[in-house]
Amino acid sequence: MISRSDRGLFASWWFTVDRLLLSAVLLLMAAGVLISMAASPPVAERLGLDSFHFFKNQLFYLGFAVIILIATSLLEPLQARRAAFVVFLGSLALMVVALFYGPEIKGAHRWIDIGPVGLQPSELAKPAFIVMAAWFLGENVRRPEMPGLLIAMVLAGAFVGLLVLQPDFGQSALVVITFIAMLLIYGIPWILVFGLSALAGAGVFLAYSMIPHVASRIDRFLNPEKGDTFQVDTATQAFQNGGLFGTGPGGGEAKQILPDSHTDFTFAVVGEEFGFIACMGLIILFAFIVIRILGRAKADPDPFATLAMSGLAVIFGLQAVINMGVNVSLLPAKGMTLPFISYGGSSLMGMAFAMGLVLAFARARMGVAAADSAWRSVTA
Q1: Helix or strand run (H / E) with residue 118
Q2: Which residues contact 279 (CB under 8 A, 6 or more apart)?
Q3: Helices of type H across 211-274
Q4: Per-residue pLDDT tens over the stretch 165-183
């Protein structure tokens, strides 16, 4: 048993960490493993691999993700900030390496091979960038003479620029929207918000005008008759087949023909085999995590912690919304994982790092009672 009088590292962590938030994240991770077992075997068989190839890999990555989650949550705020700084610089360097030496997969250079393992550095860079931006914005609040806003915008430009060069327009849009949300919380003038939004809109227009596959995806979303909508149509049919309670584990048809049923379209497999009730359960779990983090952010007196936790909540929740939106044909098709649910080691470890940072900042800034009070005020 652990006593409150114990001054050890683990005891200090256990009595100050947000156990509700930690439990929700671990539950989401466990759900991801079970869903991977249901969704991935047909894909592996079509590729001539062992039926449980992707499931075994997901278990392997999950072990590292849990270690990253717990280890990061043990850090003090300054240590967590320094860790994010190192991860951000290292990830940017690896993204540059990937551009020149990484394998080309579906026309993009987003990965690097580390032995038998493929790593997507941008997944680790996302949470690290948010902490770096929050750091400089927070310093600008405390010391107005420091050009924190300018430095944060330069970091955002460098990161988004590398994402565009890969190219990865979905992640670029995700980072830009998250950064704009952080700037709104920080308190920039509306004219600057409109200016940044116009710049982002111009970027979308240029991508649509100059890059065929971007134009194709948007055209197919607006007018399905203009191209192949097989995956989206199959996903939509999967939800219809699943109904309220689903066809049961192993009873789905979509995963037998969907090329990305274990990654981008995992949510459709959940809808077909486990039904609307299970989908709503996942949505509620995602919503609980986001609102819980925002409650922590709202109650924290430190502008850095508020900005960092808010940004991490936004990118986590927005990525989930985009993935689910694509699955139900509410958004144009985009290869983006469902956090902790879709197959992918880089995504799993990147989100574990993000949630570990949240737990570290929240644990160090206030006790459980204060967090519960903030949670009640947000949900009231």
Answers
A1: strand 117-119
A2: 239, 267, 270, 271
A3: 212-222, 230-242, 254-257, 266-273
A4: 998 888 998 999 999 999 9
Tens digit of each residue's pLDDT (9 = 90 or more) over 210-268 = 777 777 777 777 776 666 678 888 888 999 998 898 888 888 888 888 888 888 889 99
Place of tokens 């270690």: 67
How far does Cα 321 stand from its chain's mean position?
A: 10
Confidence tier at 154 by pLDDT (50, 70, 90): very high
CA separation for the pair 371, 305 (Å, rounded): 14
CB-based contact 324:269 (threshold 8 Å):
no
Give phi and psi for 366, each to the nearest 5.
-160, 160
- Judge whether 324 and 284 are in contact, CB under 8 Å: no
Residue 3 has pLDDT above 60, yes or no: no
Instruction: Report the residue count for the chain.
Output: 380
Q: Is 14 exposed, middle or buried (0-12, 13-18, 19+ CB in 10 A)?
A: middle
- Strands 117-119 and 112-114 come out as antiparallel
Gap between the Cα atoms of 297 and 157, Å rounded: 25
Distance of CA 358 to the CA centre of its chain: 13
The first and second tokens of residue 211, run together, are 């890059």
**Which residues have CB under 8 Å from 41's CB, separation 6+?**
51, 52, 54, 55
Cis peptide before 339 (omega within 30 of 0): no
Assigned token pair, 72: 């990061």
> Pick from 336, 318, 315: which is nearest to 326 by CA?
336
For residues 333 and 220, the answer to whether their CB atoms sit within 8 Å is: yes
φ/ψ (deg, to 5) at 114: -115, 90
Please state, in angstroms and rounded to a whole number, the distance separating the CA atoms of residues 237 and 253.
10
> How many other CB atoms sit within 10 Å of the CB of residue 183?
22
- With contact defined as beta carbons under 8 Å apart, do 149 and 188 qualify? yes
Q: Which of 100, 101, 99, 92 is nearest to 121 (CA)?
A: 92
How far is the C-alpha of 62 from the C-alpha of 87, rounded, in Å?
A: 19
**Amino acid, single-letter form, for residue 200:** A
